Amino acid sequence: MTQLNQALERPTVPTWTPHLRSHIQAAAEHLQNDSEEMRQCSPEQVLYHDYMQAGAPHGPALYAVKGEHWNGVSPKFLEFINAFQFRRGDMGYAESGYGIQRHRNFMRRLIVSEHHLEARRPAARLDIDVGCLAMTTRMAMYDMAKVAMRHARERHPGKTPVALVPTPSWDYRGIFKDVGFEIVFLPLGPKNGWLPDLQAWDAIVRDTLADGSRHIAMAVTNPQHNPTGMQWPVDVTGWLLDLCAAQDGFLLLDDAYYCVHDPRAPVVNHLKALLDAFDREGGDNELVRSGMFERWVATRPFGKQFSCNTMGVAAITTSPTMLRQLSRESWINRYHTNTHNAELMCAWLATPEAADWTIETGLFYTRQKELVRARLKERMGWNDAALCIGPSTSYMLIEIPKVYQTTDGGIDRFRDDLFFATGTLVSASLFNQTAPVPYVRLHLGSHPDVIEEFLRRWEAAGLRYDMASTFGGRAGLGKPVLPPVFRQEG
Fold first, then answer.
1. Where is 181: in which H helix or E strand?
2. Nearest-5° Cα angle at 17, 454 to 262
3. Which of 4, 46, 133, 465 is the most exposed place for a label (fewest CB within 10 A)?
4. Are 191 and 420 in contact (CB under 8 A)?
5. Do residues 148 and 161 lie in contact, with contact meaning Cβ atoms separated by under 8 Å?
6. What tens digit of pLDDT does each residue of 269-299 get?
7. Which intervals hold domain Aminotransferase class I/classII large (predicted)?
């Protein structure tokens, strides 16, 4: 038999598809941490270590927790990056943490265009400024929190500064609590269609302020909401804006998912609504007189839009005075780096391919959500009420099985047990502070092959909404799920 014939007699059976392989490799690189001390900072790294020590019984670990995009990056953007040529001047420290002027000019034009502000003719002292941050919006939020904390201590001595944070949500708590704010959560849930109930929120605020010892120093609005994907009405931002004005507080408008959106559904433009409020009566109104124009910041990252979170480039829109204060905080805390990432992102955003991908990625997430929704309903017993799927963001919420809702540990216990039973990681209490609703968050930014493998393992392990008993914790490591079958041999 010739060598060729021998090869034909033993055809190569692919264990994983190419997109699965790239996800598996990247997940392993990000989750492995050989330092026992360091990995205690990450529940996912702790779980991964235990899983690998058990021999990875269900196959390579799969990850859908924090918005990773290890294989979902725009192909055209990857080509653009690999062909891009930097100049020597792109590699030095920057003088401003909020961007060199050329990048700021570009970001201003983009914000004005995409938020439909071309017709705005602001009154004196009501023009916006736009920074180009190259260090992730979390850094800008830290800068803002420090400005707001200093303001609260100077203007409201003796009172506890409070930050109003929606829940479930992204980890705003981690920023504001670290700076010294007391966190008061504003809950969202299925009873109100996962939209803010302003009457309920108002009652929480009144209760918070009742004894006179607290001051609303910060509030967060997240219009294309992470993780529900629901779009908040502009009335929500208006209500928070008025509250902050009355309380001498600051407002964070987190527009992280403004363009990560089903393009068939109109996008709700909260930045324009906020500026319209300042512009009422030609800018001569109580809101402006309160000084609120100097106490708001809108953040708009682009990592979500193009599946490249490692670049950390964002537009920061606010008043010129507030941008100066953010820049001051930035200088105190860090040297300014990553200007080359801003150069690259600005150049990419100017291309027609970037606009095309924005539409494509919105449709992609819509298809991914429908895939998971259909599989959970048709094969694993979920119903529509137990799933939360909005038109925005790269996430969906899944109610944990009923048996876990009466189990000690709640959603974290389910996250751990599901990983030990299937080798798949989802997000639990990281986003669901105070656990007001028994849901986990699933990130859908990975290729459909990865999501299909998640679902295959879940079904093979016996995951059901009405499952009679829990997976049993680490006992799941001793019950490997069936491997995938790509080719039946004759």
1. none
2. 60
3. 4
4. no
5. yes
6. 999 999 999 999 999 999 999 999 999 999 9
7. 163-383
